[in-house]
Specification:
Layout: E1 2-6, H1 13-21, E2 25-30, H2 36-41, E3 45-47, H3 53-62, E4 67-70, H4 74-83, H5 93-100, H6 102-111, E5 119-120, E6 130-135, E7 145-148, H7 152-164, E8 171-175, E9 180-189, E10 192-202, E11 212-215, H8 221-238, E12 243-252, E13 255-262, H9 270-278, H10 282-291, E14 304-310, E15 316-317, E16 321-323, E17 328-334, E18 341-342, E19 351-357, H11 360-371, E20 376-378
Parallel strand pairs: 1-2, 1-4, 2-3
Antiparallel strand pairs: 5-8, 6-7, 6-8, 9-10, 9-12, 10-11, 11-14, 12-13, 14-19, 15-18, 16-20, 17-19
Helix pairs in contact: 1-10, 5-6
Length: 379
């Protein structure tokens, strides 16, 4: 099958590898010649901004592309939906907007009576409490501020910051839910969860950008039932096609509060964390739904793997990674060469590190050490 992968960045490399391993004729598209998949694809790389939907459609016709697979960005999913090469396998533009636009997704949560932060208007302030302001179409934690509801100056600053980072100049204010951040990456068929992975997520550099995570072995069963029923409700209400539904949520006193949802592949090699930890072929499974194929259920395993995006709290010239404790490194995917500047708070990242441990307890302890930034130094 001739397939167009709408991404050339490192995070989409597992998708490319899975598709080529299955024997597909894989083309990639992106406007950065230095990207890994621009180079790996060679003559099958299309030099084009994949947000330009008309141009991508023209390339697809010219090359007789049979299927398209979105990568790890919201833009790639928007273009995939607009292409509609296989309408029976593709959500509508309306459905995609309901999931990716934070304001519309909040309205959906209200309509379905799902536990989620409550939306407020700037006119509701001042009021007692802590609140969060974010762009409705932002990403990677950009433009997000937590503020005191009685501080008018802080409210105005938070709103301006969010608007500045929003492509549509639109912001959202919500109640601030306290608790631990998780994600649920679920593959749904017939509006039911076929496979699901619960992942603990933390941040050590930027408070709103995840950089450390692992698959949870002891996620509370009651919370899992609540969340998977929420996934079913979302799927039924929107008439979702079979495939991935990825949810971020905060667990507060055993109750999951849904933060956001996506149908695209998560970034920073999230799928490799699942594959290394469980043996589940995440990238191949994700891509299969866009091709109209179904993969066989794999033999699952359990390994104790942690994923960490290597970055610096403050600006530094990257000279290498020096470990302060012994680690079993499963993989390290470099994103910078030595001599480059690592800007603060994940402005640039040195690489993605996967470490393996002998027990779940060791994994949890290592997670805490990474979040406390006691594992390595960058210089």
């Amino acid at each position: 099958m001739r397939v167009l992968l709408l991404d050339t960045a490192f995070a989409a490399a597992p998708l490319y590898d899975a598709l080529t391993a299955q024997g597909h004729d894989v083309w990639t598209v992106g406007n950065r010649p230095a990207d890994v998949l621009a180079k790996k694809a060679g003559i099958r790389w299309i030099y084009e901004d994949y947000s330009k939907q008309k141009e991508i459609a023209a390339h697809a016709r010219r090359l007789s592309i049979e299927r398209a697979v979105p990568g790890c960005t919201d833009v790639s999913m928007e273009t995939h939906v607009a292409l509609a090469l296989a309408p029976l396998l593709t959500d509508s533009l309306y459905v995609n907007r309901c999931l990716t636009n934070k304001a519309e997704f909040r309205a959906l949560c209200v309509a379905l009576d799902l536990a989620a932060p409550k939306v407020l208007s700037p006119r509701d302030f001042p009021m007692q409490g802590r609140f969060i302001c974010k762009p409705v179409d932002g990403f990677s934690g950009r433009g997000i501020t937590i503020f005191d509801g009685n501080d008018n100056e802080a409210i105005a600053s938070a709103w301006a910051t969010a608007i500045a980072e929003s492509p549509s100049a639109t912001a959202l204010i919500e109640t601030c839910v306290s608790g631990d951040l998780y994600s649920c990456s679920a593959f749904i068929e017939g509006h039911r969860v076929r496979s699901a992975f619960y992942v603990r997520e933390g941040a050590s550099c930027h408070p709103f950008a995840v950089d450390t995570s692992y698959i949870v072995s002891d996620f509370p069963s009651d919370a899992a039932r609540i969340l998977e029923e929420a996934l079913r409700k979302i799927s039924v209400a929107l008439g979702l096609r079979a495939g991935l539904l990825h949810i971020q949520f905060i667990l507060e006193d055993g109750q999951p509060f849904i933060i956001e949802a996506a149908r695209r592949c998560p970034g920073d090699l999230y799928g490799l964390l699942v594959e290394y930890s469980s043996g589940f072929p995440y990238a191949a499974e994700y891509a299969s739904y866009f091709l109209g194929l179904r993969s066989a259920r794999p033999i699952m395993q359990r390994r104790f793997v942690l994923r960490h995006t290597v970055a610096s709290v403050s600006g530094v010239i990257y000279g290498g990674l020096r470990l302060g404790i012994p680690l079993v490194v499963r993989a390290f995917i470099p994103l910078q060469v030595t001599g480059q500047e690592l800007t603060a708070r994940q402005g640039t990242r040195a690489g993605v590190l996967f470490c393996e441990f002998e027990s779940y307890h060791q994994l949890q302890c290592a997670y805490d050490e990474f979040l406390a930034r006691r594992v390595y130094e960058l210089s």
